[in-house]
Amino acid sequence: AQSVTQPDIHITVSEGASLELRCNYSYGATPYLFWYVQSPGQGLQLLLKYFSGDTLVQGIKGFEAEFKRSQSSFNLRKPSVHWSDAAEYFCALPSGGYQKVTFGTGTKLQVIP
Amino acid sequence: DGGITQSPKYLFRKEGQNVTLSCEQNLNHDAMYWYRQDPGQGLRLIYYSQIVNDFQKGDIAEGYSVSREKKESFPLTVTSAQKNPTAFYLCASSIQGETQYFGPGTRLLVL
């Protein structure tokens, strides 16, 4: 069965510092992978998605993610974090023609001045 | 402006009461989904519907019911059989085989 693991429940970074959020997956074939962001009390917004091809994916708000098959990872990165990036981030693995999406448990990002 | 709306934003349920959460979309998406979100557990799929008048159970369907009489609407009823209904409920929609887009959510609390 497929699974998604986000090892970090909570991360704190200083504004302007770089960010990397970890995501590991388990899937029997080449996966599709997403990253979503959720502000407090809000729905989820898609940041970026990986289907195939180029392993470095660019998304909105200056985020990027790199797919590494050898490490079963799809880590999210941003070179310089802004206070408005404070939110919860979810890695997700769709399957079954997108009808079922397995979500990680989320990483809550805190940004300090 | 296209999007997904959920109402109400907050909903209170008394013991033994059924409550219905609304989800409407004007994106002309065929597929719609209901998720439950609890702290530290990510999102879990309750029900999904790929077409009008058809829906399938997700991973945690017990204590919930849905209908899909119109393409635009996918209401979720939390029945009295759901013993732990306090959670944040998210509705999503998509074109078949495409990315899911989410509504703003409804927080359900038990009185």
Characterize the structure shown.
The complex is a heterodimer of chains A (113) and B (111). Chain A contains no helices and twelve strands. By secondary structure, chain A is mainly beta. In chain A, the strands form three sheets. In chain A, strands 2, 5, 6, 10, 11 and 12 form a six-stranded mixed beta sheet that branches. Chain A is globular, with a radius of gyration of 13 Å. The N and C termini of chain A lie far apart (41 Å). The mean pLDDT of chain A is 92. Chain B is mainly β and 111 residues long. In chain B, 0% of the residues lie in helices and 50% in strands. Chain B has no helices and eleven strands. In chain B, strands 2, 4, 5, 6, 9, 10 and 11 form a seven-stranded mixed beta sheet that branches. Chain B has a four-stranded antiparallel beta sheet with strand order 1-3-8-7, with no helix packed on it. The radius of gyration of chain B is 13 Å and the shape is globular. The mean pLDDT of chain B is 92.
In short:
Chain A has 113 residues and is mainly beta. Chain A has strands at 3-5, 10-14, 19-21, 24-26, 33-38, 44-50, 56-58, 64-68, 73-78, 87-95, 100-103, 107-112. In chain A, strands 2, 5, 6, 10, 11 and 12 form a six-stranded mixed sheet that branches. In chain A, strands 3-9-8-7 form a four-stranded antiparallel sheet, with no helix packed on it.
